[in-house]
Amino acid sequence: TQLLEQSPQFLSIQEGENLTVYCNSSSVFSSLQWYRQEPGEGPVLLVTVVTGGEVKKLKRLTFQFGDARKDSSLHITAAQPGDTGLYLCADFYSSYKLIFGSGTRLLVRP
Amino acid sequence: ETGVTQTPRHLVMGMTNKKSLKCEQHLGHNAMYWYKQSAKKPLELMFVYSLEERVENNSVPSRFSPECPNSSHLFLHLHTLQPEDSALYLCASSQAFRGDSNEQFFGPGTRLTVL
After folding, report:
1. With an 8 Å Cβ cutoff, are B101 and A95 in contact?
2. For a disulfide at B104, which of A33, B42, B67, B92, Cβ 3.0-4.6 Å?
């Protein structure tokens, strides 16, 4: 059974700081997705990456997929309080199945 | 209403009660999902319906019973639950099985507490 490990589990930073969170898989990803879940809401898809070495940018968020397709990182530049939430990585490994990591809980203090 | 809605948002029930969770999607999708999100485990897929037919039952105990009467509505019927079933239950929908681009849209969840 595939296991997705995310680190750190918790992160509390000041507004304006940069941060990186990580997702590592026990096996090769089929298709990696990153989600953000805000308090009281369901997860919202941020990005899907498929190709090893791929880098995608979404405003201040940069997503990197490892060459071997077993790891990924999410970098946030100049974090804002609106970035607060639970960041989840997931492997979309069939036409409908998602396996999720346990997440990184981020708090950005004003 | 837009997106995926779930009712109730909060539910407290005793172990002998019977209750139902409701999910409705307003996105024209034809696949719907139930997930469980508990404090100590990653988000877990419970059930999947595609074109109103159940295609996945991820070893879920029989005290959870899903129902999908049409492509817009999904229910989760609960009976004789255990305290360890307390969790956030999330519903999601998507276009059925479109490969890499199959984005799932989640509702806000029902926070369930079993006493």
Report:
1. no
2. B92
| pLDDT (tens digit per residue) in A75-84 | 999 999 999 9
Q: Which amino acid is located at A69 in the chain? A: R
What are phi and psi for residue B99, nearest 5 degrees? 75, -145
pLDDT one-digit tens code per residue, A1-39: 889 999 999 999 999 999 999 999 999 988 899 999 998
In single-letter form, the type of residue at position A35 comes to: Y
The DSSP annotation for A22-34 comes to EEEESS--SSEEE
Structure tokens at A97: 């199945």
Environment class of A35 (CB within 10 Å of its CB; exposed 0-12, middle 13-18, buried 19+): buried
What Å distances lie between residue B95 and B32, B100, B103, CA to CA? 9, 12, 8
Do the chains contact at B56 and A40, CB–CB below 8 Å? no
For residues A39 and A37, what is the distance between their CA atoms, to the nearest angstrom? 7
Mutation site for A-interface testing, chosen from B41, B43, B68 by largest number of A Cβ within 10 Å:
B43
Q: Among A62, A38, A36, A67, which Cα is nearest to A51's? A: A67
Both tokens of residue A21? 């969170």
Measured distance between the N- and C-terminal CA atoms of chain A, rounded to whole angstroms:
40
